[in-house]
Amino acid sequence: MKQNRLFLILLLAALIAPGIVSMALAQDAIPAAEIINDEGGPVSITGAVTYTNGFFTMGVAEPLVILEDQAGFVDRDRGFLMPEASQVIGKITSDFYTSPFTYSIDLPIEPAASLRDVDQDGGEDTGVMIYAIAYWTNTWGDPYLEERDLYGGGWSGAYASTRINPNPSAKAEIIGGTYLIYAPDDAQGFPSGFGEDGLLFSADDPIVIVPQGYTIVNLDTDPFTFDRSRRSVIDLIEGEGAEQEDFSALSYTEAFDALIALFRETYAYTEYKGIDWDAKREEFRPLFEQAEADGDSFAYQHALRDFIWSIPDGHLSAPTDDAEFINATGGGLGMAAREIDDGRVIVNFLLEEGPAAQAGIALGAELIELNGQPIDDVISATRPWSLPFSAEHTLRLQQLRYMLRSEVGTDVEATYQNPGDEPTTVTLTSVPERVSFAFSSFNAGLTGAEPPVEFRLLENGYGYVKIYSFADNDLLSIQLWERMIQYLNGAGVPGLIIDMRQNGGGSGFLADQMAAYFFNEPLLLGNAATYDESLGEFYADPDFEGQYYLPPEELRYNGAVAVLVGPNCNSACEYFTYDMTLQDRAAVVGQYPTAGLGGGQTTYLMPDGLQLQYSASRALGPDGEIIIEGTGVAPTVVIPVNEETLFAEGDPVLDGAVAHLDEVTAVELVDGGEIAVGETVAGEVVERQRIRYTLIFEQDGVISIFLTDEASALDTVLRIYDLSDQLLAESDDSDDGVTAPNSSLTELEVPGGLTVILEVATYDDASAGSYILEVRELE
What we know:
The protein is α+β, with helices and mostly antiparallel strands. Helix content is 22%, strand content 30%. Helix 3 packs antiparallel against helix 5 and helix 5 (277-294) packs antiparallel against helix 6 (297-309).
């Protein structure tokens, strides 16, 4: 027996020992990492964050530098969400709004990042925790980063201790920089290089054994350098895709040549707009050469301005000399004009005692000619100082403003026709007035002190919110937005009007996610295409398509929505408006489409300290089509531009939205007849309809009322009113845990002689189906 047992033990040893031996040999074959500055491992990290991009601080209220869990990159999972426990938040130790700013992070004794086995030996080992140090901004929720703060998940592509391949088709592959790793014991492996395939955390990585605890890994050396300094300094990398192009040290002509080369390759809409960069170089380069030869900064800025003005893209910025602008537009005629739907140009503002009023021009007068030229030709020939524009309707409206501006003292011969009169020609002389110019401004009435979101309840019971910007304090924007949603839901507000008519844009992602509060599905929104140098063409990463990241259900509004738009709804404002057209979620109400600015922007530096911007990415719809750019988002409820709306005392666009909401929120009340205690009735309810039954209690009693359907699937609402239509009781979902979303009101004590109205409805009056209404008398 002992021999048999010994044989069994030896047999087991023979079966097990080869694995032990091979593992030991494999372990012995893996060298230990060569350590520099072995001081036991880092306990704190400090560093600087340098930024050049002009949009870096836009909207940021709560900037963070954190230890970023890199399990997402190891797994190549773009949807990886860093666990809250892994997010070690550092301190920003200098002025964030001045580049560079500095940070410090004290490392936890026991970190809680995701463990990943990266030694490529095929076995299951404990693995290591892998961190990048990264900049983020917190907008939603508590101090930790959630899905929306993380743009859906993944890992950082800019402003991090790591460096990624800047080509979008490379899918944010990390190619260098610095990692912080933590090994829970001294038996874990980590790559010491990228291997022949040039990819990190892949099968051909050379592996070394790293010591227990924290180690800094420099990915920019070959092999990687492993540093155990007690206090480490790691500066974050802006990244090639984020840092701005800098031509400021070049001559005027060299900078222009560099700008043409940049636009030729990376401007988002060359083919879409039919731009010939060779022709533009031939047209404008002599102006830069002359400015350079003369050492004339003013002429250089004029040349740069005229070049940018020649590109029909409202996102592009051009230098403007304020003194020149004020002089060129300082003279006015004391009137403003609009073109109405029938093609006439009508005076819609007169300055009392201004040149036009003194000459006899009346409100409503038609302008026929200026300086002997037909008014349409005058408009078309006018070059606004607010150029360039992406959309023709925006350009036309600005031309109408600027055709009536000139230097003070300029004579203008005007032919006009007052209502009911014959055409008359007068000579007007411009005077130093800007009142008429301000009246026609897209930004009329703004002070600059507006909050990003402003909400109130209208007298008609609808909510009204104006979003002024998606570039203001992001955290405040969301706090105000969610407070509004809570009020709308809590008060049962049936409809909301969102005024976007004076919104300059900002963060497209913020705009998308604010629209998500009106949806119950994580819809795909489209993509953005940027230039990929490795492909030689624009590329949109199909794994990085935009989508809604839904807020909690209690923070979603399901009522009717109308969005007010106009030509001063720009960029991110247009993304929001476009989003609200999905699934016909909202009516878009206005007289004109939005501005038509669909590109993603980046900045560049030119000589003489000029920081300008251009469109480096193109917005695409879910089917890959170019959206918004050049067209804007058109109203679905079009308000006419005519004498009635021009001279209306109120706001005709707002009035049109109210009329639309009245129409879509109107509920039909249907008389279902009488129902008695102990009776059950069945019926059909449709959307926007409520069925009312009269119930008379002949004597005192206790009753329960049930509103159900056969499948317990119809989301019903049961209400009781008195004869003066005052709500007495209401039930949305039954609380029995079985028949929800059906409704019930149970064990009601009722006096004899009482008459009430029972109302059968559905949640938000948005469903249809068969129902069963029962009034049950309790024993």
